[in-house]
Amino acid sequence: xxxxxxxxxxxxxxxxxxxxxxxxxxxxxxxxxxxxxxxxxxxxxxxxxxxxxxxxxxxxxxxxxxxxxxxxxxxxxxxxxxxxxxxxxxxxxxxxxxxxxxxxxxxxxxxxxxxxxxxxxxxxxxxxxxxxxxxxxxxxxxxxxxxxxxxxxxxxxxxxxxxxxxxxxxxxxxxxxxxxxxxxxxxxxxxxxxxxxxxxxxxxxxxxxxxxxxxxxxxxxxxxxxxxxxxxxxxxxxxxxxxxxxxxxxxxxxxxxxxxxxxxx
Length: 265
Description:
Blueprint: E1 24-34, E2 37-48, E3 52-53, E4 58-67, E5 74-87, E6 90-102, E7 110-120, E8 134-145, E9 152-160, H1 172-189, H2 200-203, H3 206-223, H4 225-232, H5 241-244, H6 248-261
Parallel strand pairs: 3-9
Antiparallel strand pairs: 1-2, 2-4, 4-7, 5-6, 5-8, 8-9
């Protein structure tokens, strides 16, 4: 008895990586010949913003087509899926079209541009790149359809992922470079060793100290002794322990007796 069961194989691919966020571009040129007559060249330049996309996104295609031949050409674009199977030393490859678009015909001696022409990616399975028996790859083909001649084709690789683009994913490299520049500037501006705090005499001079006492005398008569007491110690250093407790030995003996009665845990 033989039973067949279909199952889906996929790997999670995060497109928020520098490799998949890098732009893809290319340029090609072709000269048309008909017997002994040579026509002018047809050139194609195309660029997309990044390599990684997720299903449902639209690819912005920027292209420039220059037609110096004597024929009318048509710029086109298409997304192809290539499935490759490896088994018992044999390879089987299946290539199919999943999305395409068509531009306006371009007469002889004219130049056409695509300023962000959109091509939507349908709901397809993600790319499989790290499997030994199955590979699923995608490519964007931007080409010029030339009558009675081989088309001028430019292939740009694509990776269809499962984790969509983060809102700040495209700014990762610029933000990291700005951060590194800021850190290098910060390291240059800061001193290697922190400076010691200034002495009390350097902050408050004798003249300020004397003026403070005179001001306290005046405010004492006007506002009372409490305000004068606060202002008197405004510029004073902290008091010594002997000034607070004239009998420190008696305090230590009292503390020892309390410890004997209530020992700490």
